[in-house]
TrEMBL record:
UniProt-recorded name of the protein: DotU family type IV/VI secretion system protein
Organism: Acinetobacter baumannii
TM annotation in the entry: 176-191
Keywords assigned by UniProt, alphabetized: Membrane, Transmembrane, Transmembrane helix
Segments forming domain Type IV / VI secretion system DotU: 2-191
InterPro entries: T4/T6SS_DotU (IPR017732), T4/T6SS_DotU_sf (IPR038522)
Length: 192
């Protein structure tokens, strides 16, 4: 959670004075995350993918800030983004979504990592969708959220074609006993 809090700070005008020290703090945060996740017995793949998603998010968050006060941090970051130094690639804008699709196809086995990817999307990671369709990204974010709810057992179905319940009928059955409905109809009949 500390890592996600950093995203909020950066987006709300927190500009670290020393980019190198800031980077070291993030690396320390990632190491602590990894140690804690291992203690909680998360899989090595989930830990790796969660770190990848977070690095993609923080890299994108830093380099896309428009305020000139971020210039020093951005210059330092562009030389060596976390995704390059930790994962050997600068293609997180595309690879993030490739990994996301793999996680989605694995379902409950990879739920922990899938949730981290979803949080990153909710916090504004856009990757390749920054130059493509934001509507498609919004649809993907909603879909992943529905899939996570389904995997956790919070929803019965997430099909866009599933039947919508008759809301009035459900409210009547749930909140008004049949006896009161009968009395109401009888009174209404007598008044007319």
């Amino acid at each position: 959670h500390d890592g996600f809090y950093l995203i909020f700070l950066i987006r709300n005008q927190y500009v670290p004075a020393d980019p190198q020290r800031f980077r070291e703090k993030i690396l320390d945060l990632l190491n602590r995350f990894e140690q804690q996740a291992k203690k909680l017995q998360f899989s090595a793949d989930d830990i790796h993918d969660a770190k990848y998603a977070f690095c993609a998010l923080i890299d994108e968050t830093i380099v896309t800030q428009q305020d000139p006060s971020y210039f020093n941090l951005q210059n330092s970051w562009l030389i060596s983004p976390l995704q390059l130094s930790l994962f050997g690639s600068q293609l997180a804008g595309y690879q993030f979504f490739e990994i996301l699709e793999q996680l989605r196809s694995r379902g409950k086995d990879r739920l922990a990592a899938l949730e981290v990817f979803h949080y990153c999307l909710l916090l504004g990671f856009q990757g390749k969708y920054r130059i493509e369709s934001i509507e498609s990204l919004n649809h993907l974010v909603a879909r992943v959220g529905d899939e996570i709810d389904y995997l956790k057992g919070k929803k019965v179905a997430f099909s866009p074609f599933s039947a919508i319940p008759d809301q009035i009928r459900n409210i009547i059955h749930r909140e008004l006993p049949f006896f009161w409905i009968l009395i109401f109809l009888l009174i209404f009949a007598l008044l007319t």
